[in-house]
C-alpha cells in the first residue's frame, strides 16, 4: 500500500538533527515557503521517546496550520512512534517535514511486516487502535518497503479541518 486516502481503508530518543528549526526560524521558513524538518532517532524499545517526540513536534508546529491540526499531528505521530517501538526489536527514525501546504511524518523501522488497521476486540482496551486513528484522521497515509524494513507515513494539509 503505497498511498492510501482517508477513509479507504541523538540521546535515548537520540538527538534531533541539525535540520530542526524552531521558534522564529521555523515561522520565517514557513512564511517564505521553505520546509522545516524534525529528524529523530528513536532508541530501541525506549517509550520515553513518545512524549519527547510529541514535545519536539509541538515546537516545530507552533505556528502551523488551523487550530487543532498540530494536536492531530501529535496524536498520529505518537501512534506511529509507539507502533515502531513496541512492534519491532530495533531503533526507528522519525522524520517530520512541515511546509506551508502541509505536514508529512514518516517513521522508518527495520521490521519488514506491513501493519494493517484492524478493529480491536473488546478485551483489547488500549491496543489495536493506532492505525485506525491514522486512517480516520490523516488526509493520506501509507506504508512502503524500504531496505529491509518499512516506512509508515501520514500527511495532513495545513488548512483542512
Explained architecture:
This protein is an alpha+beta fold. The protein is 30% helix and 25% strand. It has four helices and six strands. Strand 3 and strand 4 (102-109) form a beta hairpin. The chain is globular and about 35 Å long.
Q: Please mark out the parts with pLDDT under 50 across 5 or more consecutive residues, or reply none.
A: 1-27
Strand order of the largest sheet: 1-5-6-4-3-2
Give the strand content: 15-25%
Q: Please state the overall shape, judged from the principal axes of the Cα atoms.
A: globular
Mean pLDDT comes to: 78
Portion of residues within helices: 25-40%
**Largest sheet geometry:** 6 strands, antiparallel
Individual helix count: 4
Secondary-structure element pattern, one letter each: EHEHHEEHEE
Q: What secondary-structure arrangement, pairings included, does this model have?
A:
Elements: E1 4-5, H1 23-31, E2 36-42, H2 49-60, H3 69-87, E3 92-98, E4 102-109, H4 130-137, E5 140-146, E6 149-157
